Amino acid sequence: MVAITLDEIVKAPKALLHDHLDGGLRPATIVELADAVGHRLPATDPEELGRWFVAAANSGSLERYLETFDHTVAVMQTEEALYRVAAECALDLAADGVVYAEVRYAPEQHLERGLSLEQVVEAVLAGFAAGSVEATREGRPIRVGTLLTAMRHAARSQEIAELAVRYRDNGVVGFDIAGAEAGFPPTRHLDAFEYLQRENFHFTIHAGEAFGLPSIWQAIQWCGADRLGHGVRIVDDITPGQLPALGRLAAYVRDKRIPLELCPSSNVQTGAAPSIAEHPIGLLRDLRFRVTVNTDNRLMSGTSMSREMALLVEAFGYGWAELQWFTINAMKSAFIPFDERLTIINEVIKPAYAKLLG
Ligand SMILES: [Zn+2]
């Protein structure tokens, strides 16, 4: 079998569920926006700045990884900046062949220069809409849904959950909590999750990345998460061997088809996995968990959706059948309505992969 190339993957339709808006800026845009607001950057040459982000994120600790966001968030404090970053995000994803994306960010981190939460949400939604229209006009249609994130160390989750529900008919399709896991269990935000469940709204929780099974168990069994942001540590509940044995929690996650938003490069950078080749995605796919492939932070990982898939092709020898499976898994697990998911699967994804599979 001839190995699939990165160029071929770029042309194939892809679905992305876990991508951070403040982790995907173009370095050149950061330089321009920082200049406009007088924010000091570690480098002012776009290429050098891009390398700085990847190097800082490569340090191996989640805390240092999160530090890189001080710079991106600092330049995303006006409506114009948020609009531009969101529009460019939609364009960049479309150029990479992503046909459906859920992009997340925390509105509470964009209030430093006096914006209200509503102004932040509306500027980002307008940016996604404008970028999607432009991409479609250029022949690369994309749909972008927004997830609003609350920070797990802060105390605004209820407010952000209500904000997400208020904008549910305007492009906000879900809710998430993010930030350092250790010491901040998801059950701190139980009120917000119970509110979302009463509203029949969708949410995912960053869990099982730096921290293990208790975090995953709480996210699912206490908080009611629809999906797991990462969830990669579910392998701690699997005994390897000729016939791997699943513990109760791993079996539950697989039985219930709970989607795992796996982010290979990001996990290697934060130390959640030793390398792409040793990433648990190989085992989890073999065991047919509901595995999806994601970018997490394209800037910090110097990556793209196509590159993540190319790395998996290289490490595990995957072909188009596996790439289609990841893509359909992601589309099935999206937070938009079922009929709309089905349309993308049947009219966009399946016909394209049918040709690739020959
Ligand atoms: Zn993430």
From TrEMBL:
Its cofactor is Zn(2+). It is an enzyme of class 3 (hydrolase). Residues 13-350 form the Adenosine deaminase domain. It comes from the Bacteria. Binds 1 zinc ion per subunit. It catalyses: adenosine + H2O + H(+) = inosine + NH4(+); 2'-deoxyadenosine + H2O + H(+) = 2'-deoxyinosine + NH4(+). The record marks H230 as: Important for catalytic activity. Belongs to the metallo-dependent hydrolases superfamily. Adenosine and AMP deaminases family. Adenosine deaminase subfamily. This is Adenosine deaminase. GO terms for molecular function: 2'-deoxyadenosine deaminase activity; adenosine deaminase activity; zinc ion binding. SUPFAM superfamilies: Metallo-dependent hydrolases. Keywords: Hydrolase, Metal-binding, Nucleotide metabolism, Zinc. Catalyzes the hydrolytic deamination of adenosine and 2-deoxyadenosine. The active site is at E209 (proton donor). It comes from Micromonospora pattaloongensis.
